[in-house]
Amino acid sequence: MRHEKDWYKELVIYQIYLRSFKDGNGDGIGDLKGMIEKLDYLNELGVNAVWMSPVYASPNVDNGYDISDYFSIMEEFGTMQDWEIFRDEAHARGIAVIMDLVLNHTSDQHVWFQESKKSRENPYSDFYIWKDPVSDGGAPNVWMSVFGGSAWEYVPERKQYYLHLFAKEQPDLNWDCLEARQKIFDIIRFWNEKGVDGYRVDAISYLDKGLDGRADFQEKIGTVACVNLEGTHRYIREMAAETFAPDHLMSVGEVNINHEQDARNYSSAKSSEFNMAIPFVLPIVEIQTWSPEKMKRDLEKDYQALKEDGWWARFLSNHDKPRQVSLYGNDGLYWKESAKMLACYIHTLPRTPFVYQGEELGMTNVQYDSIEEYDDIDTKNYYMSMLSNGASKEDALAESQSISRDNSRTPMQWDDSAYAGFSTHKPWLGVNPNYVKINAANQMQDDTSVFRFYQKLIRLRKENPVMIHGHFALCCSKEGPVIAYTRSLEEVTWLIIHNFSEEEQSFEHEKIQSAEQVILSNYDEVKMENGQAKLRAYETLIARIE
Ligand code: NOJ
Ligand code: CA
């Protein structure tokens, strides 16, 4: 597909975590064939872009985020030919193809690393970050990796440590090495030529490690110590100019935002880095700190930082987070209402909505009975560290259940047949038992389903530029569970109200006249008149007020 400048603003992006989406060959693992089979489903939903989690060859220590060969497809997922069929079939339906690029690190099985670790003199010697031990033979500094343990691993052949901000099987690339950068850009050019429309770029805030004295050497977590340094922005600009910008390919960086300026650097048009950014927050921090009040503060802050020429990814779910209806909504009594409310929230906020697979069905968290049933490296490390800190097995399991990334990685619930119609074989990760009730087949026959609600929102966006380009203004109290805002473009103004609680709330706005103003809601009848709306549990509504 050829792209005009700014085409990305019109996208609704659907994230596919392949391993769990649809198994096309009956081995219990999702794959490209399965994705091809489900393109009509995506088309019916109405999305116009698919971001696929990494599909490249990988030993899967971190499910594809450890790449051993960027030029080939992981055998379990299929072949390059399958990928090309997917690309063509997606394009035929007007669906853009967005690939995941993992460029902060490779797998330790990648040939560059295999060579690099052999000696200090080989051609790849400088492709990774090697440092001598300190005088007692210990690691160069106190940094810990994201998945626990030291961020440094010793290699006897080189008598040096290499840096890994994630698992030890994910050595960090050395972006200060010009040759490494050129090889990285060649990877992107290879996929550009294959007709990719855009990229989601993984863990991109740590390219410049600042080991020459600019990073924080007291800070324990490596990714915090070297986040957002100057060189990172310089390297992103270089990459964007050489690879994404010439053909207006869409780019979204997964980034860490600590200050407003970080947000501007990564995603304002002027800074020439990414088209938009996905801010990363650790699930455990999100679980412990989120509240509707905090959401309101963040909305205001983001909008102020980016309103001039910034763009932003809007999402509540991805493969690293708990299921949104379980975290921000209510996956019991108000499951359906709250799943719809969260959908309306994401789709009516300024900038680009991302839908994570299964979210459009209101899929929920899972609770496996034992740690052995979990797959996620982060969950397993977390469980072990709780045990070694003296927690009981029950407590360690309970906490691991709530933070586990497997909550969002359970197989897609297509229908109520065995294994939820995901596969004919026992899946790599257990199916959530609620698939008998929550599944796509059911919801496609039901006009009031969560799926149909998503479909309506996506259609509404296509028909109403106010949802894409409208000015945004919060119009609710800073306190309490009601989040309300207006979106306005030329003569049109929409008022959008959400009740993030089970309790009834009332909301006042001078332009509320009657229920006839309502464009969409998750209740059959809306109670609003004379300047006031009465909101039931998790009620959401869009009303036209001008
Ligand atoms: C962020 C990805 O989303 C996550 O799944 C992965 O573990 C890390 N980056 C490391 O690549
Ligand atoms: Ca398969």
Describe, in plain words, how this protein is organized in 3D.
The protein is of the alpha/beta class and 546 residues long. It folds into 4 domains: 7-103 and 180-213 and 223-365 and 434-457, TIM Barrel (Alpha-Beta Barrel), CATH 3.20.20; 111-163, Alpha-Beta Complex (Oligo-1,6-glucosidase, domain 2); 367-408, no CATH class; 470-544, Immunoglobulin-like, CATH 2.60.40. 29% of the residues lie in helices and 17% in strands. It has helices spanning 32-37, 39-45, 80-92, 111-116, 178-193, 222-225, 230-244, 260-267, 283-289, 292-306, 324-327, 335-348, 377-388, 393-403, 440-444, 450-463, 466-469; strands spanning 13-16, 49-52, 56-57, 69-73, 96-101, 130-131, 152-155, 160-163, 198-201, 250-255, 276-279, 313-314, 352-356, 471-474, 482-489, 492-499, 505-508, 518-521, 527-529, 532-535, 540-544. A hairpin with a 2-residue loop joins strand 15 (482-489) and strand 16 (492-499). Helix 8 packs across helix 10 (292-306), helix 12 (335-348) runs parallel beside helix 16 (450-463) and helix 13 (377-388) packs antiparallel against helix 14 (393-403). 1-deoxynojirimycin (NOJ) binds at residues 62, 65, 102, 166, 202-203, 254, 319-320. Residues 62, 65, 102, 166, 202-203, 254, 319-320 line the site of 1-deoxynojirimycin (NOJ).
